[in-house]
Amino acid sequence: MVSPPPSTAELSKEELLDAPLRAFGFEIDLISAHKVSGRLQVTPNCCQPFNVLHGGVSALIAEGLASIGAYTAAGKRRVAGIQLGINHLKTAQVGDIVLVEAAPLSAGKTIQVWEVQFWKINSSNSENRVLIASSKVTIVCNIIENPKDAQRNVKYSKL
């Protein structure tokens, strides 16, 4: 008999992390409804052919952290990213350490907008950092788990 997966309320911060982020070696430092942060050491696995951090990896990290934060802020209810924009300002090369911090700009019950900033840091002094990318992610929150239940929650209005 197959045991059911653990409820999301019981997952550790490592288990909350998307499998693709784990595959790139991303590590979570902090999870709260007000901030999510973590770090990545840039390796060849997350670089484009010119040995700089791939923009798609940055976008993946941005949506992953914003989604974890929105999930936490929404009382651990299902969320989904619906829009992502990212600006890459400087490069990070193989060996660089990138600190990523996500914070809500607006944390509504249905829609949340999170800002995610990417900082290249000096391994000996994390205060010495350079902004390399900035992203805004829009998340829809409190998605109904079972679509069949949606009909029960529809509110009708008279015209």
TrEMBL record:
Domain Thioesterase: 50-120
Domain of life: Eukaryota
Stated family: Belongs to the 4-hydroxybenzoyl-CoA thioesterase family. DHNA-CoA hydrolase subfamily.
Localisation: Peroxisome
Keyword tags: Hydrolase, Peroxisome
Protein name as annotated: Thioesterase domain-containing protein
InterPro entries named among the record's database cross-references: HotDog_dom_sf, PAAI_dom, Thioestr_dom
GO cellular component terms, A-Z: peroxisome
